[in-house]
Design a protein that fits this description.
This protein has a seven-stranded mixed beta sheet. The chain has a seven-stranded mixed beta sheet with strand order 10-9-8-11-12-14-13, with helices on one face. It has ten helices and 14 strands. By secondary structure, it is an alpha/beta fold. Helix content is 30%, strand content 23%.
Length: 384
């Protein structure tokens, strides 16, 4: 299989709902041109180098795909013909593996197993004709094919990430209710971390918000400590592109950054996990971990921002305990003015319990749990 360098590719980066704007700005910053944005995914132009660079550098993406094409698919025949017309041989060799998975929403074709079978058959038949073979060992490189059928439009893609991108590699252990790394990065980004402003997470749990903020501020690529499925792809020139991009990422780390974060929690056991996570992420020197009750923290004589994801009754506490905690947070955090405060929770009555209406709210998702980021950044006076 011969592939020319600097291929013009369409790439698709997926994200949690609510992170499309942040992800789009990241794609822009990497120098790629956006083509289309829809809920949870952005399509953009790139080349084979962009495949690896996107996986390595996008903080808010869940996966990066190579898009083969889109077409109308209101019947299995249309799905077969559309799939068979795509240039799979540009990526998949005669000895490579190409399993199929996907999903369908609001479409005439809704049976995922049937769609999988049709897509697999179409790819097999096209490659059989190209390579003049009838049996595929599927024992070399794995190219995970994924289809997405939405409103009768089928999009066929190849997954380049492998393990989801929110799994950075530093969080081997997590607390009972871990915050996804991509969402933690988004919450940190929205709080506008700065070198001269202390970022303090008083409900740090596994330390994810503080770690993601430190990675961001030191310009450390989120995927620098892990590997991706695409590293084995032929289009990455036997790993040369991956080595070059990874070296570039290491060289770009800001070793002189003076950013500092505090990460405290009432549970000493989870603090040990957080410390180990920070060490694996290479930012333990930027974060001070210590045991503290969030309801008793005191403002320091410096500028600061509280950024936190307190328990919200899904796993760790009862609803009554959560409501009591939020009232006590309102009392305690009122003494932190004029510090800015950012609180991520799924509790719809948070503002009432907390005692003050947020200056701005933003809808986000922690996995499948709908949440709201309550932002307090103006005159921090409370209604208590």
């Amino acid at each position: 299989m011969k592939v020319s360098k600097l291929m013009k590719l369409e790439l698709v980066a997926t994200c949690l709902f609510g992170l499309e704007k942040l992800l789009g700005e990241e794609i822009d910053a990497l120098g790629y041109k956006r083509i289309e944005t829809m809920d949870g995914r952005i399509t953009y132009e790139g080349d084979e180098r962009a495949v690896f660079a996107s996986n390595l550098n996008l903080r808010f993406a869940e996966r990066v795909f190579i898009k083969l094409g889109s077409f109308s698919a209101q019947s299995f025949e249309e799905l077969y013909e559309g799939t068979a017309a795509l240039p799979w041989e540009n990526f998949i060799g005669k000895n490579d593996a190409f399993p199929v998975k996907g999903h369908a929403l609001r479409s005439a074709l809704f049976s995922v197993p049937d769609c999988q079978s049709i897509v697999k058959k179409a790819v097999v038949n096209r490659l059989a004709n190209i390579y003049n073979i009838r049996w595929f060992a599927e024992e070399r490189i794995k190219y995970q094919i994924e289809f997405f059928i939405f409103k009768n439009i089928a999009t066929l893609m190849i997954d380049t990430s492998g393990i989801a991108l929110h799994k950075r590699g530093y969080r081997i252990e997590a607390g009972a209710a871990p915050l996804r790394e991509t969402l933690a990065a988004a919450v940190a980004a929205i709080s506008r971390p700065r070198e001269d402003v202390l970022l303090w997470d008083p409900f740090c749990g596994s330390g994810t918000i503080a770690i993601e903020a430190a990675l961001m501020m030191t310009n450390t690529a989120p995927g620098i400590a892990r590997h991706f499925a695409c590293e084995k792809f032929d289009i990455l020139a036997d790993g040369v592109i991956a080595k070059e991009e990874r070296a570039k990422a290491f060289a770009a780390i800001d070793q002189d950054c003076e950013f500092e974060a505090y990460a405290s929690d009432i549970d000493p056991a989870v603090l040990e996990i957080a410390k180990q996570n920070a060490e694996r992420a290479g930012v333990d020197d930027r974060i001070k971990f210590f045991e503290a009750d969030a309801r008793k923290i005191k403002k320091l004589d410096r500028r600061g921002t509280i950024v936190c994801n307190p328990p919200y009754g899904e796993r760790l506490m009862t609803q009554r305990e959560v409501e009591k905690l939020y009232r006590e947070m309102g009392d305690a955090f009122s003494a932190l003015s004029p510090w800015q405060i950012y609180v991520l929770t799924s509790a719809e009555n948070f503002q009432t319990l907390y005692g003050r209406r947020a200056d701005k709210v933003r809808k986000l998702y922690n996995g499948m749990i709908p949440c709201t980021l309550y932002q307090y950044f103006k005159n921090n006076t409370f209604n208590k």
